[in-house]
Amino acid sequence: MAPGLDQEWCGQQEQGGHSSPGHGTGEELREGNPDCEDGGDAAASPNKPARPRGSPGQASANGAPRRRGRKGKAEVLLLELSQTPEQIPVEKGLGNSQDGDGSPRGGRPKRRAAKVALLYLQELAEELMPVSQPPAPAQDTPQPAPRKRRSRRRKEEEGADSDDPAQDADFVPPQEALQAEEEEEEEEGSDTMLSEASEAELEPPRGHGGRAAASGRSKPQCRGLAPNGFHNSIMAPVEKSSSLTCSLREQKHSQWEFPDWIPVAHRWTCLSDSEAAPYLPAEEQSPLFSVQREGIKEDGALYRLNRFSSLQPHPERLDVSFFVGGPVWAMDWCPTPEGSAAPQYVAVSCHRSMEETHSVSGLHSGPALLQLWSLGVLQTGQGSPSKARLAYAIAADYGCVWDMKFCPSGAWEPPSAARTHPQMSRLGLLAAAFSDGRVVVYALPHPGALHHAKTTQVKDGSLHKHLICKVQCVATLQVGSIQAGNASECGQCFSLSWMPSKPHHHLAAGFYDGTVAVWNLLTKSLLQCVHQPDASLKLYPFRCFLAHDHAVRSVEWCKADSNFLVTVGSDRKIKFWDLRRLYEPVNSIKRFLSTEVAWLLPYNGITVAQDNCYASYGPCGIHYIDAGYLGFKAYFVAPRKGTVWSISGSDWLNTVAAGDITGELVAAVLPDLAVNPLNVKRSLDRRFPVYKADLLPCSPDGPQGTEQALPRTHRYSEMVARSYIRFQDTDLRSFQNFPSREPMRRMHRQELKAELSLDRLQLEALHRVRFSPNLDSQGWLVSGGQAGIVRAHCLAGLASAVGLQLLPECQARFSVLYGDTSSSPGPPERSPLPAE
């Protein structure tokens, strides 16, 4: 045996096991092993002398470091960095046994975890270098040539099973990296359990770069505060999602679809006062309410709005309020092309009475009113100078509306598009789910075109002061077939979803009996499409499947891949479906009663709002549920003390907003959910209140009078006579010092000890929340509930630098595409309807 070779082996080794020179097996030795003389720093090798003993920090004559004492990882790392490459010993494991490294007998180890650990230590070393620089080498010491470190991609291309000894010698992890790998093995059970998510955490989000890391990739700048006051780790996914949303919309969205579905003037009949009366909501005035804005001393004035009227937008905070006449249960934004700078419209539907209730088990028909509200030109941090106004309304006889969805793209054309009479320029395509079991699709014109073409004679009296019309729809969607009658056997329709990818020709709907139906809106099949005498279409689904054992509460399409669909039902199940194999769901989760879901574009899962009637165990509120491919556990977004009726997500801002029965509208910035969210930091700082609605007693002397108790009744007339609603708005222009501000403290108090009174009418409850899907008005959020007061707020503080940079680029592209507004988009595809 060579002189100086240790006689004691650290660890156990099978006899006859020798590794070839330069091709060690990488067998790790545990530090602190009492059988190892050198403290477990390295394994002794028959071809290499062991480290002599000595005081910490000293080196032997041959340059090998002596035994170190109990030091911290940072000190050990700095000590390694202070040595020249010649002084750092090359340590290799012994033996070919399969013990701890997962390598086969006689083979090479799997070093993926060690590579990731080494990469982390190298990045940590770069951060510590300015603090402690390594000593400069002596003048007479020859400078060794710097060793080139090959990139990870090149190593992967060369193959992990290569037997090249030079490749092994090129990667020499220090002892700290081996120790980190051993700790990973103890936690995960095997080094192969290090998932792709661990590597993805090292990937920088797009548009949020930092200084270059050792591997050549840019490191995300996740330290310090962003200009809006949020931490950079919170805003990094926002910038990443903005650029990703813009790029994917260029691929998935279209400029022009459904060229045959053009609004025609003679299909819109304007109603007089007497004809419109049965369709109008019963309440002519709103409840009393006040608005208190953070940082502004209000005078405590009480407002009461007339039906279809609004308040002047606040000049500084930009918030909008208007009264629709009844409890809001359906709402959606009208999509516009990116960079169009067009007026923004919101479709709203409400019940006719404040106390109106419906049995979900039967079909209901009757008068209903679909309202289209114009909010003016909205941009990030800039609102409309004029009031919100009712552009026009559609009178229908199919019962109440449970859900409304606009076609995601390809339905908007410029208002000045040249149309020969009787055609009108099209604003969008709106699908509405009614309580009589049918789904109706309307082709909506621009309000200016409709006012210009208002030539229909009114039979009785003068026109209503608001433009209310009876409309001939372009298509009626029903479940069944041409052989089975017109009555729907599936019950009421509660939810809708357009296919998010062009040509948007599929539409899915969920029904009371658990059925999900999918229609092909462009079908030419005589078994699925029937032409009606009024020139409209009656469509039957090409695919129906029983998704749940009870009513389908919400249906949502995956925006990244139209083959996938998610449904939630009253049977407390969440099911992910692949439409190519509907015999069983991709994943089924039974956890709580879900009310609505939001599927953001870049993620493999959904954000779920829940009812707390079954949530006696575990946290209640808003969760992120993985579809099952990545195997992540549920991520708790925000706790809620009451039922969360609605949830909406913004792809541009990577943010979800939810309204609950307690009257609080809460928004939460999601982390990068492409990686495991269980290690997300600052989860408490990611959520914030938009506003809080409270129902307070109102004495005859006004709100400042003597204290009174709220009436315990479900009668609206008694509640509105003795109470008023107080809206407390948060200043959303900046989030500086946000954890210590009053809205955040109030929200945390509500999360801990909020009280829910079920023995009275929940006049402050929020039923519908919708984020604007448009780039121009990104950050605008509209909400409405039981009181019939719809409010719009601008989350100006969440605007990312990437989103602001995209807007002028999209405006330039829009001006090129639509600069000549004398012709509508896609004229070769348009075939005008024949005049009747």
Automatic annotation (TrEMBL):
One of its GO terms (biological process) is transcription by RNA polymerase III. Gene3D superfamilies: YVTN repeat-like/Quinoprotein amine dehydrogenase. The keyword Methyltransferase does not apply. WD repeats lie at residues 545-580. It comes from the Eukaryota. Transmembrane segments: none annotated. Residues 1-114, 128-228 are annotated as: Disordered. It is found in: Nucleus. Residues 158-167, 179-190 have a biased composition (Acidic residues). InterPro entries: GTF3C_component (IPR052416), WD40/YVTN_repeat-like_dom_sf (IPR015943), WD40_repeat_CS (IPR019775), WD40_repeat_dom_sf (IPR036322), WD40_rpt (IPR001680). Keywords: Nucleus, Phosphoprotein, Repeat, Transcription, WD repeat. It holds the Pfam family WD40. The keyword Transcription applies. GO terms for cellular component: nucleus; transcription factor TFIIIC complex. Its main location: nucleus. Coiled coil: none annotated. Part of the TFIIIC subcomplex TFIIIC2, consisting of six subunits, GTF3C1, GTF3C2, GTF3C3, GTF3C4, GTF3C5 and GTF3C6. Required for RNA polymerase III-mediated transcription. Component of TFIIIC that initiates transcription complex assembly on tRNA and is required for transcription of 5S rRNA and other stable nuclear and cytoplasmic RNAs. May play a direct role in stabilizing interactions of TFIIIC2 with TFIIIC1. This is General transcription factor 3C polypeptide 2. It comes from Zosterops borbonicus.
